[in-house]
Amino acid sequence: MSRSVELIDVEMTFGKARAVEKLSVAIEGGEFFSILGPSGCGKTTILRLIAGFMQPTGGRILIGGRDMVGIGADQRPTSMIFQSLALFPLMPVWENIAFGLEVRGVRKADRRKRAEELLELIALPGYGDRMVHELSGGQKQRVAIARALAVEPQVLLLDEPLSALDLKLRQHMRAELRSLQKRTGVTFIYITHDQSEALAMSDRVAVMSAGVLQQVAPPLELYSNPATPFVARFVGETNEFPGRVERVADGMAAIETAHGLFTGRSGANLKVGDQAIVYVRPEAISLAAGADANGLHAVAEQLEFEGATAMLHAKTDGGYRLSAALPHHRLAEAPTAGTNVRLSFAASQALVLAHA
Amino acid sequence: MHSLFQRFGVGLGSVILICVATWLLGMVLAPNLMMLDFSLRPNLMPAQIGGPDDRYTLVNFTALFSDPVHRGIFLKTIWASALVMATTFVVTYPMAYWLAKVARRKAVAFVTVALIIPFWINEVLRTLAWYILLAFNGPLNVVLTSLGVIDAPVRWFSDIGVLAGMVYAYILFMLFPVYNSISTLDSAQVEAARNLGASTLQIHRRIVIPHAKAGIATGCVFTFMLAAGSYVAPALLGAPGSRWFTEIIYNWFFEGGNWNRGAAYALVLLALCMAFVMAALRIFRVNLADVAK
Ligand SMILES: Nc1ncnc2c1ncn2[C@@H]1O[C@H](COP(=O)(O)OP(=O)(O)OP(=O)(O)O)[C@@H](O)[C@H]1O
Ligand SMILES: [Mg+2]
Q1: In this structure, is residue B11 part of a structural domain?
Q2: Fewer C-beta within 10 Å: chain B N or C terminus?
Q3: Is the CB of residue A155 less than 8 Å away from at least one CB of chain B?
Q4: What is the CATH number of domain A5-229?
Q5: Measured CA distances, A267 to A97, A254, B40 (Å)
Q6: Which ranges carry the ABC transporter domain (chain A) (predicted)?
Q7: A172 or B195: whose pLDDT is higher?
Q8: Of A160, A188, A100, which is closest to residue B193 (Cα–Cα)?
Q9: Which CATH number do you get for residue B129?
Q10: How far off is chain A from B107, nearest CA to CA, in Å?
Q11: Percentage of chain B surpassing pLDDT 90?
Q12: Across B99-108, average pLDDT
């Protein structure tokens, strides 16, 4: 597959503030690529750099193998869907969708026809003559997507397009976006600060923090093998046990923590004597004591029923509050508040990373 | 009215009501009715007033349209005012867009102050400044001849002088409404249009101007009415021979001594302006309430 968008050492500074640090990433053609990170970490900035609304202060941006330096936003093979959608309120829906064709000088009859086809694609046939304010939030969303697709971009840039929608609609639109992307084969670069959104839809996810790219990986890899403490904390829930590295062998590391000696998979560059943290997902902690497992004692504090699972919050002797997700069929054994519990997790389910 | 009494009580409510009514009836309606009355009576000697000749007639109005000179000046005032309006818009629009969407905060503050300060000075004095600037031996001719742009000094006191003076005098009345309406446009829409491949011209034609049309209509109505009713600029900056319609009205009142004819002419000008406002609203498809904002 060909490289669709390539960022090489891209940097962006506003005055003295650095919004994006030297960032290199290659996005494949037809890929659903998400950029995930907390507010203000530079996600929108990256998207606007790719779209051509501003020029990077360093590095190069290639789209379809072509260097984009000096090529304006109106000349790039990209289409952006704005956080606010930015539909044109004074035009009916079909003119919105066909705007990109209109400015390219396509005849009116052809524009109308293309708009109808796209309305078909987004499952809004017959809505062409409505005004934008006569649409629901989800419908507006889809019109914005159709408008962006009408110009047949190589790359679609989406800036948190679902953040304004309610949960049900958001989940519905996720599935629609994903299937639309598969049908059209257009490269999607999708920005979000919602990790479940990124994990659910993407082929690959890039995690950013304060302008620095932390990790680029498929969702499963990102969740089970976070490369940095930031990613471990930001993607999914996790328990943390800090300590000192005692042994490193065969990809496993033993850490002396306040709760005892724990063994887990070793992250990169761990040496004996380093400060490190053991990361354990709540669903990896179970009530039963396993044979080769790491075990610890705690006092049950609270049980939160969440539907599919129940989250047990417990306090260790050292005062650390940890959470363990109990599956549905184990709920009968759930301890009541105040009782002592013995918890354990398998070494293969724990990850040891150097202290950042 | 009920809510007025509820909010301020019957006493204060009545006072407010009476003040507003007095203002509207006494200050706005009454003078115009008196004008109408004047315009419909013939111009008579004091002795004849109240006599048999003192009856309503349309002679003052028909006189305007049967006198070719006055009719010509009236028509010229219309199209010249339209030209002033159009020129002011063309000059103002890029500035308004720049101020609303491009310029940084500091630049906006600076330019706004620079534009407003001259307007602290009376309109007559401001026009006098142009009078000096455009004089035959004035600085503009000196600069242009020394630069070699023109061979001999130009007589600027002409339609061009009037146009320049008026565009300058009314620029703020166009600038602020247009600036205001453009600044309410979401910048993301401009970017979205650009992103979809629109050229600068297309962005303005399809996105910015349609959005700003209420402000543009307001600015156009203001400048047209001010230009049509202007007296100082044409008197000072016009060629000696060419006259503005307001100058004719002035003459009827203060030199011709014919108040009835003057009142009729003034009413025709008023009717013209009202017709223009209505037409502008119709063309821009905005309503009066939007303009008043
Ligand atoms: N035009 C600008 N001028 C100065 N600083 C800017 C500008 N645009 C963004 N920044 C700064 O750059 C940083 C990154 O901003 P950006 O909009 O990319 O964040 P984001 O990741 O999209 O956040 P959010 O999730 O809240 O949208 C922020 O610290 C922001 O203040
Ligand atoms: Mg953003």
Answers
A1: no
A2: N
A3: no
A4: 3.40.50.300
A5: 49, 12, 100
A6: 5-235
A7: B195
A8: A100
A9: 1.10.3720.10
A10: 18
A11: 25
A12: 90
| A19 CA → ligand 1 middle, Å | 7
Residue whose CA is at the smallest distance from ligand 1 atom 19: A40
Confidence at residue B106, expressed as pLDDT on a 0 to 100 scale: 92
Q: pLDDT tens across A119-157, in order? A: 988 888 889 899 999 998 888 988 998 999 898 888 999
CA distance A81 to chain B (A): 8
Residue A94 scores a pLDDT above 90: yes
The first and second tokens of residue A125, run together, are 């046939």
- Residue whose CA lies nearest to ligand 1 atom number 17: A44
* B207 has a chain A CB within 8 A of its CB: yes
Cα nearest neighbour of A88 on chain B: B189
Taking only the tens place, the pLDDT of each residue in B45-87 is 777 777 777 788 888 888 888 888 888 888 888 888 999 999 9
Q: Is A125 helix (H, G, I), strand (E, B) or coil?
A: coil
* Gap from CA of A286 to ligand 1 centroid (Å): 41
Of A100-104, A164-168, A232-236, B69-73, where does mean pLDDT reach its minimum? A164-168
Q: In the predicted model, is pLDDT for residue A169 greater than 80?
A: no
Which ipTM was obtained for this model? 0.76
Pocket test for ligand 1, best of A20, A45, A159, A162 (most atoms within 8 A of CB): A45
**For chain B, how many residues are written?**
293
| In-domain check, residue B126 | yes
Count of structural domains within chain B: 1
CB < 8 Å to B207, chain A: 88
Q: Are strands A350-354 and A260-266 parallel, antiparallel or unpaired?
A: parallel
Alpha-carbon distance B118 to A2, whole Å?
62
Residue B202: inside a domain, yes or no? Answer: yes
Q: Which domain holds residue B157?
A: 62-292
Q: List % helix, strand, coil for chain B (3-state, nearest 5).
A: 80, 0, 20
CA atoms within 13 A on the CB side of B206: 25
Which of A47, A50, A74, A145 best probes binding to B when mutated, by most B CB atoms within 10 angstroms? A74
Interface subset of B 212-271, CB within 8 angstroms of A: none
Q: Which CATH number fits domain A237-354: 3.30.420.40, 3.40.50.150, 3.40.50.1000, 2.40.50.140?
A: 2.40.50.140
Q: Touching check for A106 and chain B: CB below 8 Å?
A: no
- B chain contacts of residue A84, beta-carbon cutoff 8 Å: 186, 188
pLDDT in tens, A240-279: 888 888 888 888 888 888 887 888 888 777 778 888 888 9
If you ran DSSP here, which 8-state letter would residue A52 be given? T
Q: Does B201 touch chain A (CB under 8 A)?
A: no
Domain definitions of chain A by residue range: 5-229, 237-354
A74 to chain B, any CB pair closer than 8 A? The answer is yes
**Closest Cα in chain B, distance from residue A106 (Å):** 13
| pLDDT at position A292 over 80 | no
For an interface test with B, the pick among A47, A78, A81, A99 (most B C-beta atoms closer than 10 Å) comes out as A99
pLDDT more than 70, % of chain B: 97
Mean pLDDT of A175-203: 88
Q: Which two tokens stand for residue B157?
A: 């006191």
Ligand located closest to A16 CA = 1
Pairing of the two strands A309-316 and A321-327:
antiparallel
Q: What is the mean pLDDT of chain A?
A: 86
With 90 as the cut, is the pLDDT of residue B97 above it? yes
pLDDT at B290 exceeding the cut of 70: no
Residue A79 C-alpha, separation from nearest chain B C-alpha, in angstroms: 6
Answer whether B248's CB lies under 8 Å from B73's CB: yes
Integer Cα distance of B76 and A146 in angstroms: 52
Paired with A28 in beta bridges are: A3
pLDDT of residue A144: 92
